[in-house]
Amino acid sequence: MKTLYVVRHAKSSWDEPGLSDFDRPLNERGKRDAPRMGKRLKDRNVHPDLMLSSPAKRALSTCKRIAEALGYAADRIKTDRSLYHADEDEILSAVRGINDKHNVVMIFGHNPGLTDFVHRMNRISSATIDDMPTCGIAAFHFNITSWQEIDFGKGELVFYDYPKNE
């Protein structure tokens, strides 16, 4: 059994128009939402073996804030450049490349790829997710022993949560 948490970065800032997309930071709401979502994960007793993030500033900042709330050491966070603006097939490829010693993995990335990924991952079509809002989290269980076996339509949606879902 493998568990995958798919997290979209928290709300980012557009205050500096000359800043590259890659370097955009979180805005105040994003800085507030990420630790709150981390606490919700902690309340669900979530303990990732691996946290894997897009290296973009807003995704990595979200990851670090959630990691802190979960007691996951920041120096254990890994980045994967392929998650930066990846489409659903690129995300699937990145997940298939995860070492099988990790059973509980949390990935951090960007729309529209993340929404497309979670939409296609769920095996129950009536429970599809049509939009991953900022700092949204979709959790899936997979009845597999290797990440290489993961495929669209094989996931069982465990929960879907986002900051405004209170």
CATH topology: Rossmann fold
Q: Which percent band covers the strand fraction?
A: 15-25%
- Rounded to the nearest angstrom, the distance between the terminal CA atoms is 30 Å
Highest CATH level, the class: Alpha Beta
The CATH superfamily label reads Phosphoglycerate mutase-like
**What percent of residues adopt helix (DSSP H or I)?**
25-40%
Q: What is the chain-wise order of helices and strands?
A: EHEHEHEHEE
Structural class label: alpha/beta
Question: Which term fits the overall shape?
Answer: globular
Report on this structure.
The chain has one domain (2-153): Phosphoglycerate mutase-like (Rossmann fold). The longest helix is centred in the N-terminal third of the chain and has 16 residues, at 28-43. Strand 2 (50-53), helix 2 (57-70) and strand 3 (78-79) form a beta-alpha-beta unit. It is built from four helices and six strands, in the order E-H-E-H-E-H-E-H-E-E. It has a six-stranded mixed beta sheet, sandwiched between helices. The chain starts with a strand and ends in a 5-residue tail after the last strand. The mean pLDDT is 94. By secondary structure, it is α/β, with parallel strands linked by helices. Helix content is 29%, strand content 19%. This is Histidine phosphatase family protein. Pfam families: His_Phos_1 (PF00300). Substrate binds at residue 58.
